[in-house]
Amino acid sequence: MKTGKEKTTLSRRDFFKVAGAAGASIAGLSACRNGETSSAAAADETHAGTGEMTYRTSPTTGDRVSLLGFGMMRLPSVGGRSAREGNDAIDQEMVNALVDHALAHGVNYFDTSPAYCQGLSERATGIALSRHPRDSYFIATKLSNFAPSTWSREASMAMYRNSFRELQVDRIDYLLLHGIGMGGGMEEFEARYIRNGMLDFLLEERRAGRIRNLGFSYHGDIRVFDRLLAQHDRYKWDFVQIQLNYLDWKYAKQINPRNTDAEYLYGELASRGIPAIIMEPLLGGRLSNVPQNIAAQFKQREPEQSIASWAFRFAGSFPCVLTVLSGMTRMEHLQDNLRTYSPLQPLSEEEFAFLQRMATMMMQFDTIPCNDCKYCMPCPYGLDIPAILLHYNKCLNEGNVPVSAQDENYRKARRAYLIGYDRSVPKLRQASHCIGCNQCSPHCPQGIDIPKELQRIDRYVEQLKQETL
User: Which domains does the chain have, with CATH numbers?
Assistant: First the structure.
């Protein structure tokens, strides 16, 4: 059995051998069947013409899935922003409008979880989708039994049954074992799914048709990923959800030693013919808010295209990708992504090389690898952890993190950081209130030492306030 250290690598040349040469249609997902990665099955990727969604076909169920998938993790709140850890109510009318627009423009895959939006995402998703014919969409949800209190068969079963009620369905199209490898390795996996009989139960549910596709989402420990793929003949995984973007393609392990480069993850799935579902194509927004000098290079090449569209094209250009998830809080997010995938224009070899150069440049910035997944939330002391970390990253990318009072741009950058901090994070939720309890770090898929980063940011803010840099 190969491990993450024995890398399955795809060179740039191999990427285009798999994806189809530049200028040709990229291979459809059935090119992954039985491990094949030729471009012979390009007809399985379909779109009716310009302005129409690109679709991929599942090799196990024949589902014709939109390449753009709607991630229901960051639903809009009545306050106009993403609903954060339940403090703001979900704006159901806006969710309905987003779902209606997505369906009308070809999106048919909707991904949720009992853990999203403080447990309210499934309900909001069910309300929005139940207004449409059941055969017009695919629902994906998860068995998100993270906490040890939910590892028993009884608790896990209750969570699974509740998903049907909240989503208002009698079948789940895509069911994921959630957060595999995020915590305690194989021991935790066996406690959550094996010793309580839940995986055997879910396999039986798949045979009965109440689950149409069964897979898992991978978040960290490569030994668990490799072990589950080694057991593919036994479990017959219909799909696996992985984090893939042009920064994580080769640098995921450098960003966080707990992670594995997406090149390896994708290569292992493609070699087995297992469809990949992609999460974090924008790394929690980091690849849409890139440093200014990098943004200028994107705009020089494609002035009319959004920076985010490059990341979505990268993720969609792999033939074994079934759908690419995007958490679209606002209508403009949805509309931009629809333009990117209606239809997909696969990367050329030169564009692939360009994105790898941009990734190398981005690694020079000491950003905190927060993806805004909110698994660290809620904080028992009320901190808005993602907002604190993301404000730091934003200012770093914009050149507004001065390191010395002697910096040419010091006054402007100092003002931008402090004013932006107070606007982004209420004072009672800022880093100064962290006591270092560390209830957050064990839940972070990126392995961030959150208390350490919060304390570092708090010291930095105090220095800015006192002008002692």
Answer: 12-362 (3.20.20.100), 385-466 (no CATH)
For residues 257 and 5, the model is more confident at: 257
The answer for residues whose C-beta is within 8 angstroms of residue 285's C-beta and 6 or more apart is 372, 390
Instruction: Tell me the C-alpha distance between 373 and 28, whole Å.
Output: 30
Cα dihedral sign for 98, 102, 103, 108? negative
DSSP secondary structure code for residue 190 in this structure:
I
Q: Confidence class of residue 28 from pLDDT cuts 50, 70 and 90? A: very low
Residues 359-387 pLDDT 10s:
998 888 778 878 788 888 889 999 999 88
Per-residue pLDDT at 85: 43
Phi-psi region of 57 (alpha: psi -120 to 50; beta: other; left: phi over 0): beta
Are residues 241 and 281 in contact, defined by beta-carbon separation less than 8 angstroms? no
Residue 116 near residue 72, CB atoms below 8 Å: yes
Q: Which residue has the tokens 């995921």?
A: 252
* DSSP strand pairing (55-57 vs 64-66): antiparallel
What kind and span of H or E run contains 171? none
List of E strands, 41-196: 55-57, 64-66, 68-71, 109-111, 138-143, 172-180
pLDDT reading at 86 higher than 50: no
Question: For residue 251, which of 17, 446, 3 has the smallest C-alpha distance?
Answer: 446
* Distance spanning both ends of the chain, measured CA to CA: 52
Judge whether 72 and 110 are in contact, CB under 8 Å.
yes
Strands 68-71 and 64-66: unpaired
- Where would I find the H helices in 114-175? 121-129, 153-167
Judge if the upstream peptide bond of residue 445 is cis by omega within 30 degrees of 0.
Answer: no
pLDDT at position 49: 61
Entry pTM: 0.82
Segment 58-62 long-range contacts (CB within 8 Å, at least 24 positions apart) = 58/29, 58/213, 58/238, 58/239, 58/275, 58/322, 59/29, 59/30, 59/32, 59/33, 59/273, 59/275, 60/213, 60/236, 60/238, 60/275, 61/212, 61/213, 61/238
Please provide the DSSP assignment of 385-454 as one string: HHHHHHHHHHHHHTT---S-TTSTTHHHHHHHHHHHHHHHS-GGGSGGG-----SSGGG-TT---HHHHH
Tokens of 465: 């306030």
Neighbouring CB atoms inside 10 A of 44's CB total: 21
**pLDDT tens-digit map of 172-223:** 999 999 989 877 789 999 999 999 999 999 999 999 999 999 999 998 889 9
